[in-house]
Amino acid sequence: MDALSPLLARFNLRAGTFFRGPLCQRTDLYGSAEHGHLHLLHQGSLRLQIVGEPEQLVTAPALLLFVRPVAHRLQPLPQTSPQLACATLSFAGGNTHPLASSLPAWLVLQGKQLASLEPLFNLLAREASDPAPGSQAVLDRLFELLVIEWLRRQLEEQRLQVGLLAGLADPRLAQTLAGIHERPGHPWQLEEMAGCAHLSRARFAARFRQVLGCTPGDYLLGWRIGLVQKGLRAGRPLALLAAENGYESASALARAFRRRVGCSPRQWLAENP
């Protein structure tokens, strides 16, 4: 079962390359509520500084992945000529994206950790070093493919112990998650969710919380509200979004939205156009 594609189809990710070349001076990056950063270091070394974290020496080949906005500083080491390709990384829905919210805020992959990503890494490094017509679009897509391939490896190798990817890697919970993802408007009850996983209600609820870090009801609410936010940005009526996502009326959806997000759909859309 392909558990990753439905997620990426409903909540796609986008990369936007904004720099390629030598890192000549200290650079501070902050991100925003809507995007994080990707840095591909394909030559030389640099120091990575994050507030509250020990300074880290990073040597090529390396991938610095900031899934969520984290203020960080890149400091070139003298005489190492660090060469970088950098991009913004945004998941539709920002920090509410079900994948983004379940991943570490940042991580650094170096050396052997990049083995499974080596073909894409090398292709991206070559494109960054020797650009040709259409290079911007090529780099953007390659960055996106690099992240998707990394997500695929996490899922296949079950490296994350808690969160959505851990749930998708669990053979029983994956069945329930697939049902929720494919049919968000279905009137899901705990008994039916547990039945999809072939577990009793008590065992299912305990296992779900242990693996995903939340209750089944909280996950269902988060998934639905994420779809609603995506729909609001696309200009779709609230009443239609309510019907598609299991709510009897626009007012019922608005109440659930406020419980989850802390404001009304209209206010959220005004602040997140």
From TrEMBL:
Pfam families for this protein: Cupin_6 (PF12852), HTH_18 (PF12833)
Domain HTH araC/xylS-type, residue spans: 174-271
Organism domain of life: Bacteria
Signal peptide: none
SUPFAM superfamilies per the UniProt record, alphabetical: Homeodomain-like
UniProt KW keywords: DNA-binding, Transcription, Transcription regulation
Coiled-coil region(s): none
SMART domains the record matches: HTH_ARAC (SM00342)
Any GO molecular function: DNA-binding transcription factor activity
Record-linked InterPro entries: AraC_lig (IPR032783), AraC_XylS_family_regulators (IPR050204), Homeodomain-like_sf (IPR009057), HTH_AraC (IPR018060)
Role, per record: Regulatory protein of the TOL plasmid xyl operons. XylS activates the xylXYZLTEGFJQKIH operon required for the degradation of toluene, m-xylene and p-xylene.
Name the record gives this protein: AraC family transcriptional regulator
